[in-house]
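Support request, please re-run this one:
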Amino acid sequence: MLRLPESPGEAFRLAVGRMAGSPFPHREGPVCIAREGIPIHVPDVSRPDAIDFRRSRLVGWRFLVYRGDVLVGAVVVREEGGHLRTAGIEVERPGGAGWATALDAAIPIAGEGEEAYELRMLEVPWLHAAFAWLSGPRSVFVSRGTAEPLDEEGFREALRRLGTGLPC
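Re-run finished. Output below.
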């Protein structure tokens, strides 16, 4: 079962306002923006011996933008210093490895069995990378580059291979 937490109304209003002021929606036809944003988290690295995903910090929301049923981009809203601000618009690369690929791989996993998962995005700032994260009893991570679902142990190993410089 997949759960998407409610994002603040102000964050959605900022995302809609950002889209209204952008030429992006008008290029190839009308678009719509998803009402609920995907929460963006960063992992806790306060302990030098491990990255703690369970104590991640919420830093914003990613509002998906669709043209029909095709994901074409997102508006990112960040929380900084207790205030929300738009951080920009990201355009999905047609036919490339992107969020559509990662979400297509992650969402069916949440539908298997009775376990409840919350859809999140996990940013790993020191790698300039982000992953779809099904947070639940057994977390699952999906890279937008490979669309290969990884459990927590596999994800930590992937981070080690990428050379995080931190023990995982």
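The radius of gyration is 16 Å. Residues 2-161 form one domain.
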